[in-house]
Each structure stands twice: as structure tokens, then as C-alpha cells.
Amino acid sequence: MKKTLMSLLAAVTLIAGCTTAKTENGGNSQSKTDDGIYNVAICRYTEHEALDEATRGFKDALSEKLGDKVVFEEENAEGNSEKCKEIAEKFLASDADLIMVNATPALQQVSKSVKDIPIIATSVTDYAAALDITEWSGATGTNVTGTSDLAPAEEQAKLFKELLPKARTIGILYCSNEINSSYQIVDIQDELELLGYECKKYTFESGADVEKKTKEACTDCDAVYIPTDNVAAQNAEVIEKAAGNVPIITGEEGLCKGCGVAALSVDYYNLGTLTGQMAYDILENKDNPAEMHIQYASSFAKKYVPERAEKAGITVPDDYEEITE
After folding, report:
1. Is CATH 3.40.50.2300 what the domain over 153-265+301-322 is classified as, yes or no?
2. By mean pLDDT, which of 21-30, 37-46, 102-111, 177-186 is the weakest?
3. What is the pLDDT of residue 324?
4. What is the rounded end-to-end Cα distance, in angstroms, of the chain?
């Protein structure tokens, strides 16, 4: 009886020991089940085209490289920062090997709660601003790395000269609660003013005042600029109706499709793919997120919506690509 009991205890110990194998990745604890499967958790801040495409690219890239060695657990915070905290706690309990966060608010909330699991982010404009890092070296020095969707402000400003040469006053419309938006408008305002435009800022705190602020901007100004902004993207239809015939240039293609005339846009699917490749390096090659430099899109495309351009009487140069459904 004693021998049988000892054999049973040994078997239980062996099973427990084989359930999870721990490895170290630059001080960040990683787990991998005994069958070689990586558990990758995904927190999307909200649903809109840009974020959806980034998530799809991320999953496709990792699946292509790892095949059935990776499984995904995906959660959507539905635009609620507090829900991001709940999702972070859930991921901690599920013993994820890596967490992908999509959009700046998701990164900010999840990174506060998760310190010992690698976090890789995408659709984040500026990591230093998002994570309140004062001395920026290109890498965060923490368990966080990822990709940025920042488009060059100078090239975005040039769209106004190319498409709206008679405009004089530009309204800059954005959510004041999104640090990524607040970061972008500093540079775009500087570039627009260098080109001779007068700029006026119009901020909304949530979707509740988007319509009001859009109407104010479109009443006061000849044209409007909206950066990559999650609240704006969620309310693109509201913005389109409130804008009337005033042309809007946006920071990315998905938002432009909803309410804009043109955009200088990153390909979010490709950005997600790049993010997936970085995740692979963390999982398989044991790269340390703290030392991995943030990666940026290598190219941007000028896009436009033909129907809105025609309605606004805009002659679009040949190097712009049509945005289609």
C-alpha cells in the first residue's frame, strides 16, 4: 500500500512538472505547454478597420511561422479603458506566453498590470508618449516592444497643398483623451503653419460630443484634419454627416473611408505582419522585448475616396490610389 501511494505521488509530481515549462527571456518569464503550444493573448482596444487589419496581419504572420504551435485568445475592450484592465487580469490568470495589444489605450492599461509577460503592441503612434518615457533610446527598456503607425507629418500636410490649394484655415479635430492623437497634432500643426495655413483645434472627450465639435470645425474652417484616432474612427459616420461639404483629410485609410476625402496611410495589415514577425523572434528566438527597437512602417500610400473628391470639386493627382469598398 505504501509503495502504491509513493508511486501515485511520483506520477502526480511528474504530471505537474510537465504541465508548464518555464524559460527566461531577458528577465520576463515565459511559459510553454509541454506539447510545444504557445498561448498568445490579444487585447484590441476597439473594433474599426485599421485595428482589425493589424490584428489579422499579426495572426496570419504568427500562424504562418508557427502553424499549430500557436493558439490565440482574443478579447475586445469595446473602447473601454477600464475593460482593458479586466482583460489584462484574465490574461495573467490564463498564463499567456505573450500578449499583443492593439492601440495606445490598450497598451497603456495592460502594461500597468502585466510586468512579467512579454507585451508586443501595434497601432501605437508614439511609445515614449504612451508609456511616459522621458529618455527615449528606441527601445522601452521594459517587457514592451512593438510597431508604430506614425505617418510623417510633413508629408501629410502636403496633401492639403496638393488637393486644397485655396484653403486658408484648417481645423484639427481629435479626441483630447487619446495621447496618441494629442501627440500627432503638435507636429501636423507645425507643418501646416509652415505651409501658410491658419490652424484651429477642436477637441472632443468622447463620442458624445463628436458631432458638436465636427460641426464647429466645419463651420469655422475651409478643411479639417483628423489624425489616427480611435474615437473618431468609431464615430466616422457621425463625422461624415456633420461635416457636410467640408473636405476632411485623415491620418489613415480606414477613417478616410468613413468620412474623409484623402489620407496618407500605412498598410495596417502589413504593420500587423511586422508585429507578428517580432512576436516570433520573442517566442522562438528568445529576443528580449526590452532591447528590441520599435519598428516603423517602411512606406505610406496616398489614398482618396473618389465620390467625396468629386463632390468637393477636388482634382486628384495621378499618384493617389482610390479607396474602394
Report:
1. yes
2. 21-30
3. 81
4. 72
C-alpha neighbours within 13 Å on the C-beta side of residue 256: 26
Sign of CA dihedral 42, 48, 51, 55: positive
* Cell numbers for 278: 517580432
Q: What is the DSSP string of 5-71?
A: HHHHHHHHHHHHHHHEEEEEETTEEEEEETT--EEEEEEES---HHHHHHHHHHHHHHHHHHGGGEE
Are 273 and 124 in contact, with CB atoms under 8 Å apart? no
* Mean pLDDT for all residues in the chain: 90
Q: Where are the alpha helices (DSSP H) in 195-317?
A: 210-220, 230-234, 236-243, 253-259, 268-283, 306-311
Cβ(25)–Cβ(118) below 8 Å: yes
Residue 130 · residue 124 · CB < 8 Å: yes
Q: What is the pLDDT of residue 28?
A: 42
- Is residue 289 scored above 60 in pLDDT? yes
Q: Around Cβ 33, how many Cβ atoms within 10 Å?
A: 15
**pLDDT > 80? residue 20:** no
- Provide the residue ranges of all domains of the chain, joining segments of one domain with +: 20-149+268-293, 153-265+301-322
The whole-model pTM stands at 0.83
* Same fold? 20-149+268-293, 153-265+301-322: yes
Give Cβ neighbours of residue 274 (< 8 Å, ≥ 6 apart): 57, 61, 147, 295, 297
Q: Taking CA 105 as the corner, what is the angle to CA 97 and CA 39, rounded to the nearest 5 degrees? A: 15
Tell which residue, 273, 197, 182, has the closest CA to residue 228. 182
83 three-state secondary structure = helix
Give the CATH H-level superfamily of domain 20-149+268-293: Response regulator (3.40.50.2300)
